[in-house]
Amino acid sequence: MGRIQSNIGLTSGIDIAKTVDQLMTVASKPVDLLNTRVKGLQAQQVAITELTALVVGIQLQSDRIGVASSIATTTANSAKPDVVTAAISGKAVPGNYSVQVLQTAQTATASSAPISSTSELLQAGEFVVRTGGFVDGSMDLDDVRGGSGVTRGLIRVTDRSGTSKEVDLRFAATMEDVVKAINNSGLKVSAKTVGDRLTLNDLSGQTTSNLIVEEVGGGRTAADLGLGGINVSTNTATGDDLAFLGASTRLSTLRDQRGLSMRFGSELTVNLKDGTSLSVDLDSSNPPRTVGQLLAKVNAANPDKLEMRIRENGDGFDLIDKTSGSNTFAASGRLASELGLASTTDVNGVISGSRVQNTLSGPLLGTLNGGKGIGTPGTVAITNRVGVTTQVDLSGSEGLRDVMDKINQSNSGVTASLNRSRTGIVLQDVTGGSASNLIIADGDANGTATKLGLAVNVAKSSVDGQSLKMQYVGEATELSRLNQGRGVRIGSFTITNGSGGQKSVSITPNTKTVGDLLELVNANTIGVQARLNDDGDGIVIVDSSNGSGSLTITENQSGNTAKDLGILGTGVSKTEPNRREINGSQTFRLQVGASDTVSDVVKKINDAGGPITASLLTSGPSTVRVLLTSRATGEAGRMVADGDAIGLNINASGAARDALISVGGASDTGGTLIRSSTNTINNAVEGVSLTLKGTSTSPVDISVTQNNSTLERNLQLFVDQFNKVRDKIDKETEFNTDTGTTGMLIGSSEVLRAEQTLTRLITQRTFGSGRVQSLEQLGLSLNDKGKLEFDKEKLTKAIAANPEDVTSFLTKETTGFGARAKKALDAIVGINNSTLVLRNQSLQRQIESTNKRIETQNARLGRERERLLNQFYKLEETLSKIRNNSNAMTDINSVLARFQDL
Predict the structure, then answer these.
(1) Does the structure show a pLDDT above 70 at 691?
(2) Are 446 and 375 part of one and the same domain?
(3) Are 359 and 398 a contacting pair, CB within 8 Å?
């Protein structure tokens, strides 16, 4: 039977739909309450979500604050960028710095004489490039006077004519610079180094005035140079001793920069007269760096028995035996040998070593001949071109300059000076005669002339002596200084001896010196040894295994270590049977064949990967030159090329030169001089990289400024975001006493915990970050309403006063503000198990649970509505039937009545 469509009962006249709706309204009261609860939960969820987003905003800002790069932006600017540019390269300190560029770095170059064609054949022979062993060195001013150095400034010199001039020594770096400055001053005064002193000679020929040296502007430059107080009526004035050892003398500068080698084990063993023996280990992990530290370590071995001291003349060391007895007092070990103590007999309980302090100019004689020296200097017999022979006594000479001075003062008619390559001596006959050959011969049994490379007998007036083979590679030489300062690359190589035995040698970052390398190679059992070579310019690998095969050294894993050491390849046979050597000389040697052209030689030079590159330069019609360029810049790239043996005449065209700047100088002082092999100098001004473009006659201002705008902006955004959170919490936890209404989150324990965490983050003091311990010191504080305020001026003052402490307070790992804020805010809004996120999840679960109850109730109410409607519909049907029955009875009664009427 179909449902009645009308909402009004046709029989009863009842409004069925309205009646059912009213009944359902009453029945729906519980559902309405649930819906109201859902809306409340959703409103809370919205409030929690909005609060979470705002707190996340605080976290993002605190993260930015906790990054060191956001603390302050430091910039460096040069007042003359055409002279020097500046850029931040590290942790720079704001301020103004004075930098004067005295000279820029220059790469050594040399060029050949003109050649007609690149296809021109050269002679068979050896092309040689020397990169060290130069004998024209000069003591650095910082190393004189026992390491106390010289205060740079101006001095006033008056010659005997009465002429006075100021000599500018503000930028003098070496003793040679001092000598040149005086000699180029325009005065009639000549300066030179004689022994360990400066000597001034008046050339004016007058006696109007004394020869005078004075300080300028209250300085002490003259005094530090040993010239203080000179005021003499003679034509010559000699200064004080400048080349002596002191506690501050750096050990690395001794022995012509060869230093002292200090490695594992006992470096010094001393046998005392009482029969006891002392061994001194200088601790290679923390070796002494200065003379003072060396003396302290040795004297700590047994102060009652042994003492080391600087000897009386100041240029070496004495060992003093404090014991008594009949035994021999002697010293041995590497240190004893290097200090000249090992081969010396004691005198009254004192062993005096050799000279280890450098001379003011030129090398020590002990550094020549590959470090073997020339022994005790004796006599050289010089016969000039006139035929007159002079015996020149060189005894007592300690340096090469002493030798030349004695020859020049001998009145032999022959002068001595450094040769063009600066590796030896050139002798020049100045008599003008030709009756005799120029003859230089040994005048003693020691062979002094021969050892000095001067023994000749030639019909020439000028003789270029042989290379003196000044040693510049020693056991203490750092590997980083080899290859013109390019160093030795980390890696390994394999040595194979003549018997087929192999040894792998690994160079690690801990392999610092040549001595370390020698120990690694010598720690083998295959009969191969490494030592310093005889020329003093590298190492030599010697195979004494008696095998008949070849000595070879190969790289491991395509490395370059052996190549950098100059030992890659196959050994050459020596005179002893089955003895082979590989010489790792730092001197570059190239064999040229008779069929090699100029182009061939250029290619061979470049292919060899040695210390120079070669190119062809067109210098005119049908004329070319070979241009040689050092691979290293600055003094480290100094080189001398010798092409005489192959018919290639080569002359220097550009001298190797370090960059030199003065930092912090004034009108009367030179400041701190800094050298660099390149035109980029780092940390001359701390944290700043300087690039030199040219020179300047006056200081250039380098300004380092700190811009706090990034930190200010981040802190202001942090403050703004914090206050948004504060406003949100106030709104959602508000209770309006007038209306009785409340915020959606009033009474929320989660919000209370979040509020407490934020307040604690702002007000908490921390320690371990220096003098900055709170945000309040940086200008951040809470007002009486709990809002954050920011005093930017306070921040600026804090950064200016304690920049490092500000950085540490904000960025320090684990305890810095950024780290603490992250930890605290993660507890509030972090992804996992944070307060507000958990509350949001709880609300979501409650909403979902309540909605399910509503769905269940609505389903039940739907069924109830259906039941009520059906009941009313059935009532209508019943009433309709009753009506129909009533009508039928009426009809029957009507019929019956009619029957009665009948």
Answers:
(1) yes
(2) yes
(3) yes
| pLDDT at site 11 | 66
The verdict on 191 and 271 lying in the same domain is: no
Whether 344 has a pLDDT exceeding 90, the answer reads no
Considering the domain architecture, whether residues 576 and 622 belong to the same structural domain is answered as: no
DSSP designation for 509: T
| Reported pTM | 0.77
Parallel, antiparallel or unpaired: strands 125-130 and 788-790: unpaired
On whether residue 846 sits in a domain, the answer given is: no
* 867 within a domain of the structure (yes/no): no
Q: How many domains does the chain have?
A: 7
Of 631, 654, 677, which marks where a domain is finished? 654
Q: Please tell me what DSSP assigns to residue 406.
A: H
Query: Sign of the C-alpha dihedral, residues 876, 882, 883, 888?
Result: positive
Helix 792-801 / helix 803-811 crossing angle, nearest 10 deg: 110
**Is 673 contained in some domain?**
yes
pLDDT score for 4: 45
Cβ within 8 Å of residue 442, ≥6 positions away: 378, 379, 380, 381, 448, 449, 450, 455
> Alpha-carbon distance 105 to 658, whole Å?
4
Query: What confidence score (pLDDT) does residue 10 get?
Result: 64
Question: What does the alpha-carbon distance between residue 788 and residue 785 come to, in Å, rounded to a whole number?
Answer: 9
Indicate if 485 and 578 belong to the same structural domain.
Answer: yes
pLDDT digits (tens, 9 = 90+) for 604-622: 999 999 999 999 998 777 7
Residue 88 lies in domain: 73-105+658-707
pLDDT number for residue 1 = 42
Q: Are 362 and 400 in contact (CB under 8 A)?
A: yes
Rounded to the nearest integer, the mean pLDDT of the chain is 90
Q: Write the pLDDT tens digit of every residue in 100-144.
A: 999 999 999 999 999 999 999 999 999 999 999 999 999 999 999
**Do residue 722 and residue 703 come from a single domain?**
no
Reported as a pLDDT band with limits 50, 70 and 90, residue 873 is confident
Q: What is the dihedral of CA 403, 404, 408, 409, to 10 degrees?
A: -30
- Quote the tokens at residue 480: 């980083």
| Domain presence at residue 267 | yes
The model's confidence at residue 879, banded by pLDDT at 50, 70 and 90, is confident
Angle at 867 between CA 863 and CA 869, to 5 degrees: 115
Please give the share of the chain, as a percent, with pLDDT higher than 90.
65
- 411 or 873, which is more confident: 411
Do 331 and 284 fall into the same domain? yes
Residue with tokens 């430091």: 74
Q: At what angle do helices 835-901 and 749-763 cross, to 10 degrees?
A: 160
Spatial separation of the C-alpha atoms in residues 729 and 78, rounded to whole Å: 52
Same domain, 737 and 834: yes
**Domain end among 586, 603, 624:** 586
Contact 171, 152 (CB under 8 A): yes
Q: SS3 string of 224-253?
A: HCCCCCCEECCCEEECCCCCCCCCCCEHHH
Residues 783 and 829 in one domain: yes
